Amino acid sequence: MAATGAGSPGRLVQYVVVRTDLVHQLSWPLGAVITQACHAATAAIHLHYRDPETQQYLEELDAMHKVVLGAPDEAALSNLSETLTKAGVAHKLWIEQPENIPTCLALKPCAKETVQPLLRKFKLFK
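Structure for peptidyl-tRNA hydrolase, as requested:
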């Protein structure tokens, strides 16, 4: 199966939203924050492994597309999780243990155009 181009309609994307304050205000090491994003992305794939879109995403192993966005703080991340839940968008809110700190969330792979309106206010993670 040929990979769909990045701008093509129906392109499957996995969005990951990471709290930027962990790095910029709370001085977490960048590696620790990247690890949080990896945990959330892996968990979302695992939880929705049998989903047809997840399977299609995994079939195109060398053409996976992820977008990492930044949420300014815990409140913004939690509000996004609530919005996604209300909209029926499958995702995993990663809560670091044992500290019980929400650090990021990852959506299951889905068509970009179906979720982009819900993520519009979040910018690329920097």
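Residues 1-6 have pLDDT under 50 and may be disordered.
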